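pasting for the record
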Amino acid sequence: MADPKWHAHLAASAKAFRLGEEASGNDLLTALIDAIMPLVSGLGPEHLQRLNSLLAETLSAQARQDYLWVADLLEHEILPCLMHARQKQH
């Protein structure tokens, strides 16, 4: 199965933040959040709480301009959370 659209946004956003391209990373992060909405609507309470916590931490890191932490959270925390949630839906 092909990667969903949100997966591409996540990878591109993390890469942009790692390369110091904050504007692009921010735009892609916004696109990611928009793209995961269909997935989020089907999450159970446990996954939804975990994802909300991760997104809040990501936005906090973004506000502190800690872009490497944003990229780490995207790749190592949010991606596995979304992949697990996606598997649960199929």
